[in-house]
Structure formats: C-alpha cells, structure tokens
Specification:
Blueprint: E1 12-18, E2 22-28, E3 34-41, H1 49-61, E4 66-73, H2 97-105, E5 109-113, H3 114-125, E6 134-139, E7 143-149, E8 152-153, H4 184-188, H5 190-197, H6 206-227, E9 231-235, H7 237-242, H8 244-257, E10 267-270, H9 277-288
Parallel strand pairs: 1-4, 4-5, 6-9, 9-10
Antiparallel strand pairs: 1-2, 2-3, 6-7, 7-8
Length: 291
C-alpha cells in the first residue's frame, strides 16, 4: 500500500518531528491539515528529552482521535527506525525510540529519518506530487535529504540513504559532527554559518549567503549527474530565508557541475510546505504502512 491509498478513510495521525534543535508534535488529518502544534527546544531538555516529548504527545492524544504515530527523526538510525542516534542528541545513542514511543502512547509507531520523511511529505502534499524522480532536502540548522527514484524512497542497506549533508564539498574544511571535515553540513548549514561568522545565519552577509548556495548547488549537481534526476525541492530556514537569490545561485552552481545531457536541467526549487513540512513528512511516514 502506498502512502496515499485509503487516506480518506483514515483517522488523523500524531506526527512527531525530532530535528537538529527542536521537536514538534501535532495532529495531522489525512487531507494535510495540521492542528494542535506543540514544540520544545532540544537543548532545554538534556536529561529528560524523551519524557518531554511524551508529555507533548500524550496531551494531544487526550484531545484528538488518532490511530497511529509517525516520526521523522534526525539520524543516523538502524533499519526501520528501530534505534536512533541523532548526532545532535548525545543522550540518544542506539535509543529504541520506536518501541519506547509505542509503549508510552499505546499506538503503532513508524520512524523514518527526518529529511527522508520530508521527501515523503513532499510527494504526498507538496510540489513533488506526480513526480517520480526527485531529491528533497533541508538546509537549516543541519543539512539532510531524501531521494525518490522511480516513485520509491531510496533506503539503502541500513535505511540511511540521503545523508547528503555529509558529502565533502570543501577539501580539508571545517570539522563535522560525523567525524569528517568539509561536509556540506559543516560548511553551509545554519549552524556552520553561525560558527564561522559569529552571528545567526539569518544575519549573514551576501558573501556568506552566496557561498552557502554555491556549495549546496555543487552537491546537488553532483548527485543529479550520478543518480539521474533534475528536480530538487528544498526546505529549511536557511534556504527559504535566503529567498529567490539562494535558489537562483544554487541552480546555477548545480548546472555548472551537472554537464551531462540528462542532468543539465537540474533545478533547486523552494518547497511549498513551509514550517509544517517536517510534520507533514512525519504523517506521511505513519500512513506509509498499515496499522
């Protein structure tokens, strides 16, 4: 069953997005309506994050009829989201998030990488409806992505395919949380820009904004030439906050790399899902499998 089949006959689901710096929880209807959103800051819960997430979730279950839970979580993670190890949450190493949530909430739980979940949401509710081959990515506090080819989300051996934030774009560059240097996330994410400039990414000057766009475009262009897609839908506070100039420059950079005929029309486009995109992605994860 695909994520869209039978959606009109279903109850709402509880969607949980565990991102690089925040967790959001909401009730999502099958038509994409997002209601009763609650958020918390990861850094404010160094020792009780799971309990805080459960509190947010349980309060919404008390007010709504839902029959399943979908989670988009920062990775990496084991196959099927059985355990998660978000780089930004040291206390969650091989954390059994799926089963722990199922026990606490009493509902079936499905877990997927946050950027990969967004790819599902883009295909179900966003600009990728009817598109069989595309890259969905986030350029925000971190950088991540999900790849859909021939209409299927690409999982890979362990279910972690799509971590394009760890493509090396600057040889010998800034250290990355993954242990490498010069990764796209370490060079072009909001966190990287703030570390380099000493100011929030939203206050970056034109040079920093252009550099981020160039690096993102270069990575997307290389992937387009390798994996044979031309549509790339981008969300996240950095990309969307920097606006049309970011997308124009990133597309130009991507096309400078993807020179083969089948990839030369690659383009980066803003995701229309906005701030609720990650929650819609988490909902799409829930509806991808039967309860």
């Amino acid at each position: 069953m695909t994520s869209g089949e039978g959606a009109g006959e279903r109850l709402a689901c509880l969607a949980i997005d565990v991102g690089a710096s925040k967790v959001a929880v909401a009730v999502v209807a099958p038509n994409g309506s997002v209601e009763d959103v609650g958020r918390l800051v990861v850094a404010e819960h160094p020792g009780d994050l799971f309990a805080a997430v459960c509190d947010l979730a349980s309060s919404r279950l008390d007010r709504s009829r839902v029959d399943r839970v979908g989670v988009g979580c920062a990775g990496p993670m084991s196959a099927g989201g059985e355990t998660v190890s978000p780089l930004n949450i040291p206390a969650w190493r091989d954390f059994p998030l799926r089963d722990a949530l199922a026990r606490e909430l009493g509902l079936p739980v499905a877990v997927e990488g946050d950027a990969r979940a967004l790819a599902l949401g883009e295909g179900r509710f966003g600009a990728a409806r009817g598109v069989s081959d595309y890259l969905s990515m986030v350029v925000s506090t971190g950088v991540g992505g999900g790849l859909v080819l021939d209409g299927r989300l690409v999982g890979g051996r362990t279910g972690n395919a799509g971590h394009l934030g760890h493509l090396v774009v600057v040889e010998g560059g800034a250290p990355c949380r993954c242990g490498g240097r010069g990764c796209l996330e370490a060079e072009a994410s909001g966190g990287a820009i703030e570390r380099r400039t000493g100011r929030p990414a939203s206050e970056a000057d034109d040079g920093e904004r252009g550099r981020a766009a160039d690096l993102v475009g270069r990575a997307v262009g290389a992937l387009a030439a390798t994996l044979d897609f031309v549509r790339c839908f981008v969300a996240g506070s950095v990309a969307l906050g920097y606006g049309a100039e970011f997308f124009e420059r990133a597309t130009e950079s991507a096309r400078g790399v993807a020179r083969l005929d089948y990839a030369r029309d690659v383009a980066l486009e803003p995701s229309p899902l906005g701030a609720v995109g990650p929650l819609l992605g988490a909902a799409a994860v829930a509806w991808r499998v039967p309860s």
